[in-house]
Structures are given as C-alpha cells and as structure tokens.
Amino acid sequence: MQIGFIGLGNMGSAMALNLVKAGHDVRAWNRSKVAQESIPGVTLVKRAADAFQADAVFTMLSDDPAIREVILDAGLLASAQPGLTHVVTSTISVAFARELELLHEEAGLGYVSAPVLGRPNVAASGQLNILAAGKADAVAAIEPLLASLSKKIWKLGENPARANTAKLACNMMIAMAIEAMAEGVVLTESVGLDRADFFELILGTLFSGRAYESYSAQITERSFKPGFKAELALKDMRLATEAGNEIGRTLPMLEAVREGLSKAVSAGFGKKDWSIMADMTVRGGDSMASSESNPEKTE
C-alpha cells in the first residue's frame, strides 16, 4: 500500500520505518527538517498535502493545535486522495476527536482514532499496543498496517472518541502509579529502607506490571532521560481533566498528578521523562537531577 505519514519524531519515525519493513511505500512529511539517512526507505515529501495522496495516512503530531494547523487549516481533507483513511495516532482531546470524526465524514474520508501505548523503543520493535476505534470498514482497511506496528490491536468500537478517552485514562493511571511509588519511597526511606529493596518487595507481591517495573527502575536509578516528556504528560493530564469536566466530574487523584507534573515543568524539567515528578515528590518538591540529565537547567 501507499502510505502517508505526518510527524517524524521519535515515535513517528519508528512507526514509519516499521511500515517500510512491512513492504509499504511510505511518503512522509515533518514540520522540521529530517535527515534522510535517519529514515532509510521512507520518501520525504515537501508538503503535508503530498502525504494525503495515498491509500492511508498516519498522523503522529504532538497535540490538537498541531493537527489543526497542519491538516485542517491547510485544507488537506478537501484535497486528499478519494477513499483515503486517516489514522490519527496522536494523543488528542476527546472533543477534538469528535470534531475530526465529523469533518472526515463530511469530506468522504475514513477516520480511525488509534492512539498507542508504548515508548519509542517499543515502537521501534513493533510491539505497541494500539487502541483503535472507528467505523468497521475503516478499521478493517488499515488493520494490516496496525498489525505491522503492534503487539496487539485493541478494537474499542465505532466511536473514535472511545480510543482517545481510553488513552487518556491509561496515561492518567500511569501517572498515578508513578506518584504512588514516589510516596511509598518517602515513607520507607524515612526508616532507612533502600528504595531498590522496597520496589523488589512491591513488584514481587502486590504490584507487578509493566508500568511499575519500568518506572520503579527509573526512580531507583534516578534516571530521567525522556521516553515520554513531562511537558507532553502534563498536556495529557489537562486533556483528561477536560474530559472529566465535560461530564461534570472532578477527579481528585488526577488533580494531584497534574499538579505534580505542572511543578516539574515549571521547574524546568519539561523535556525530561515524566517520572521526574517522582524525584520531586521524594525530595519534597525540588528535584536534584544532575545537570547532565537536565540540560534545561544549564542553558
């Protein structure tokens, strides 16, 4: 298949390369310049509109405004190849997902919300979990493409907003897990228990699972090289808050982790991994991450 791809950051480039490996003709565009040698086999196009001249196009941009600017404001839906299916893998707001669904229907194009679970290394290995929702024919048309990127495709029905809501809920719960581990460390280190020993205990008894395994290691090692940047995590917590407000609900734990991420970003750690908020909790609100792990503090 001929595939368009918009957004060649760490996640997008890994996904585009896996589509090439699966035998597809991938034509990609990025807002900033990308070195051709970094994405072998991917054809770089000069305009985002060129990526929409394909059987399917993937979008992996950072947020609602970026998608609106690059795709909607530029009129790419109106000029897209007839019959194209647009797969939005970005983490976006529930309200924007509904808007995109309507606009694609009006343009006669397929639309699938397909946000992903997994860090860049997981994307590179083709082991993402993909949350897919959209009309059955649209999902079926791009399912072989999703299969080349994922360990599992979670089909969540024909309402695209379901996938986006589920993704926000997942990220919200990971943030809560990070904060819970940090607060556990605050208590246990106060009596001299090493955090590595505490995490060995919880992983071996009550809290096994990828999120706990991955982020407990980062907290133990005090390593916050970005897998998922704190500034993007804060964006997701804001979107989750908006989704809660839309249904008239206040979510206290969400408010707590949103505040923690906000403090981390305000302190200059927005480009670091979102688990940096655990370090701030452990240290009473002032992360002592080294200048090497926090270049923002030295600029």
Can you give keywords for this protein?
N-(1-d-carboxylethyl)-l-norvaline Dehydrogenase, domain 2; 9-stranded mixed beta sheet; alpha/beta; Rossmann fold; 52% helix; 13 helices; 299 residues; disordered C terminus; 9 strands; 13% strand; single chain
How large is the count of helical segments? Answer: 13
- State the CATH architecture of the largest domain: 3-Layer(aba) Sandwich
**Class computed from helices, strands and strand pairing:** alpha/beta
- How many discrete structural domains? 2
Q: What's the CATH topology name of the largest domain?
A: Rossmann fold
SSE order, one letter for each helix or strand: EHEEHEHHEHEEHEHEHHHHHH
Query: What is the CATH C level class of the largest domain, in words?
Result: Alpha Beta
- Report strand %: 5-15%
User: What shape does the CA trace take?
Assistant: globular
Largest sheet at a glance? 9 strands, mixed
Low-confidence stretches: 290-299
CATH homologous superfamily assignment of the largest domain: NAD(P)-binding Rossmann-like Domain
Number of strands: 9
Distance between the termini: 45 Å
Helix content: 40-55%
The radius of gyration over CA amounts to 20 Å
Mean pLDDT: 94
